[in-house]
Every structure is written in structure tokens, then in C-alpha cells.
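Appendix C reproduces, verbatim, an entry submitted by the partner laboratory led by Prof. M.T., so that reviewers can inspect both the input and the predicted structure.
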Amino acid sequence: MTPTRTAHAVPRPPARWSLLAAGLLALLALLFTSGTAAAHDVVTGSDPADGATVATAPTQVSVTFDEAPQPGLATLTVVGPDGAHHEQGPVTTQGDVVSVPVGPLPAAGAYEIGYRIVSSDGHPVSGSIAFTLTNPSPAGTAAPGTPAAAAPAAPADPAHAGHADPTAPPSPAASASDDPGGGVPAWVFVVIALVVVAGAVALVLRRRA
């Protein structure tokens, strides 16, 4: 007589491993979304370029960002080797470019463009860009279409009263920075996800026991 073979069911993976995999996927999703949400506008270029040496004094300087800053809340300064300010006229924002007219630059040497904006995510971002001028402006020249005195900065938007005043002139020696308390740190989401995964695994093990 031929023995009867008994079909064996293919074992399914334990439910705890399914929960663990789901938790890891959720952790990766949290890390990705939190990193994207915390990103502020960053500088992608300037005119003059950072570290450039120019022979002709610019009549306007500009800073370009990866996204358009909030209009009406940007500040640009141009400080010469003697510490004097040379920006003249109002700051304008066109898309992702912020610019300001510049008066005569009377001395050769190192100049710094200080910027402060309110980024598209609502946080202030500030920093500086340096360039070197080899030939000062000719005597008696002025930036075309600009008044002799700098126009007053626009008032801050009340909607951003909780942030630093974006209209205050930035320090010319300030390095690029952003609001350190602007968003929830990514490690908080990591801890939450790990706690959820550990709790789910412990619950499955308790039920199997």
C-alpha cells in the first residue's frame, strides 16, 4: 500500500516581524518628512560672487536663494573696509533674488554684503558675502536712480512677531545661520517611532506567551 502524504502548510512569518517592518517604514517616512519641513532658504549665488575680486565698483548688489523669500521683509547692507555703509535706496525682492542699489565705493579693499530675509517657511535667515574691490568709484559718482540717503527699512510683518526682527541691519561679520528654535528636531520623531515599534513587538510577544 502506498503511504498517504500529508500536505504541510507553509509557515507564515510571525506577526511581530510584520509589525516591526511596518514600524521601520514609518520611521523612514518620519525622517524624510521632518528633514524636508525643517529646510530653510539657502543662498545659491550673488552678484558680486562670494570671494570675487572686481575692478569696477558695483552700483547694485544682489543675493539669490534656492526659494523665493517673503517679499517686503528682506534687508541688505554693503559695508566697506572703513566700516561705513554704502547701500542706498529700498531693498527689492523679485522671485528668489534680493537686491539693493549701492552708492559710490570710495576705497579699494574688502567689502561685505550682509543679508537677512524671512524664508519661505517663515524663519529668518541671515549671513554675509564678501568681495574685494581693486578700483574705487570715481569721485562724484552715484548709483543711478537712487537717493543720497538710504531709505528706512520696511516695518516687520506682525504675523512674524514671534521671530527675530528681519528688518534690523544684519551684522556684516555674521556667518550664514538660521533660527535654531525654528522646528522640531528630527531625533524627536526617531524616538517616537522607536517607542511605537518596541511597544508593538512587546504586545505581540505577550499575546503569544
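The domain at 43-178 is CATH 2.60.40.1220 (Immunoglobulin-like). Additional entries are available on request from the coordinating office.
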